[in-house]
Target: HNH endonuclease
Amino acid sequence: MISQPVELSTEDVLATQAVSERSLTPDPWADERIGAMKARAKKHYIAEQDNRCCYCAEQWLTEHGRVWDLEHVVPKVLRPEFMFEPRNLAVACPDCNLAKWDKETLTGPQIAEYPSQAGSFLVVHPHFDRWEDHIEKCGVVFRPITEKGTWTVTECNLGRFALKYADPTDEADPLDRRFEAALTDLTADPVTAQAALVRIQTYLASGAGAVPL
Model:
């Protein structure tokens, strides 16, 4: 969980106000006048999050800007008035950011002010939630343990790790074929994906394959 949101300087506030009033580009987020603010915010959240993506919690031990996206928890396309809200910003890996994209993350989309309570969000919120309270990581498998966890695992496509790194067709380890059906189900609808994750976790906890997949 992020303990300290980025603090905008006077220059940052003036720049964001200017961009909000009249952007020089079709996408206000691309306006060069807020470039310095974005760079400082990204650097702040990389350190604050211990080099971990706010959605998958994978750690990337680099501060190179190309590795990280400065993410809007509530998409700026849906709520442009929250674009410069520090509590709406975090760093995410490009894969999670791309998967989440512009999906609605508020439980009440018509809310006027930026929420200050975790319950106002569908997604595991990096400023208001403890990631481990909602998602359990078992090797390359991410198991949701709450509704928020299910939303985050599904909408940020955290099943991609199991699909990539637990290759069921790898002839070097034919036992991995036991995961084939379950791994395929991870890309299905949320209910089926949840059941697949439970099957995998049960299998791993059972030891030597007592529970068939």
Residues 131-206 form one domain. The longest helix spans residues 190-206. DSSP finds seven helices and four strands in the chain. The chain has a mean pLDDT of 86.
